[in-house]
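Dear support,

We are seeing what looks like truncated structure output for some complexes. This example has two components. We would appreciate it if you could run it in full and send us the complete token output so we can diff it against ours.
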Amino acid sequence: MSLPRKVDPISTTLLQKIKESLESLNEKMEVMIEIQKHEQRAVPDGIPDVLDVMTLLSLPDHLRKTAVTLCKLDHATADEVSDQTKRARAVESGYLNQLVLMGYVKKERRGRKAYFYVEREENPSEMKESWEK
Amino acid sequence: MGKIVAIHSYKGGTGKTLLSVNLSTLYANRGKNVALLDLDFRAPSLQAILKVQNSEYWINDYLNGVCDIKKALVDLSQTHSKRGRLLVGLANPSTEAIREMTAKDRKWEMKALGRLLSLKTSLLGEMGLDYVILDTSPGLQYSSINAIVSADVVLVVSGMDISDMKGTQRMIDELYELFEKKTGLVMNKVFAEVLQSKNQRADLANKLLNSSKLPMIEMIPCFCDILKAGGVSVFVNENPEHPFVKTLDRMATTIEKL
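Here is the complete output from our reference environment:
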């Protein structure tokens, strides 16, 4: 007769930590793969990549959805993007950071929040002034 | 909030501009407030069709960051609409402007996308318009894809030509679906003989739609009267009882519900 297996709480915590580390490793590897693909496509004369519609078309589906949503929102946190795409905040955060590493999106911190945006204007305030004249 | 509708096609000559002008006027005649923007920078045509004097600012200027969108709009409500506001943004038809627009780089196109996306706030939000209709260039060009990304609804116009239908099918798979746009198809200039029975219409729709699940918004017969008019007038105002206008009226109602 076999006794019911007792689950050691320490090993459960350890397994959970291993799982989280593997997930984190997987995410980092995905980013590296994307960067590698991006570098292979890079223009040799050093023209920076821009998030135009042709670039949007060339992105994988999951990143395109995030990028188009960010284009529409202008400046947004991962939370705000996730509200629109209906995907988890952590997932959007990962995708937005991939887009930052690929050079298409900028990231800035305001207090505890990280804002993502597509840099379009050299000086938006100057342009607004010229419109108002 | 209102809707931004982009009218696009794979090939030129499918009737995008004719549909854009008449659909915009029809909505204005229904009491809606509408802006019609010419984004066909390679072959601007709204100025000639609507007989507008030279505009102080063009849509080109708005996309170049020279002016606010309001300055690039001409109000045609008095002359062209029975009830609502009808505003028009013209593309500069001068050869120099066409040449300049075709030579824009990717960074400019990215900025242009940002400005087109901001129309939702300025035209639909601040100005409270009900419809913004974007008349685009045919095929896969920056200006037309920018318009598609900025629109809430895309109407794809195809003729009966086999190359047009195949190209439209490719765009459905490789463009509209990638951007997850609400898209509807319009077959224009269809021979009346193939629209006589329900089965014939279904066969023709299947031929264009292939395996796609997109809705067929309307099949518009080919009318000699429209060809005879030669684009010198706004057809819905000149011939309100014409069957083409009745078809367009039905189409406008379908788009409202999309």
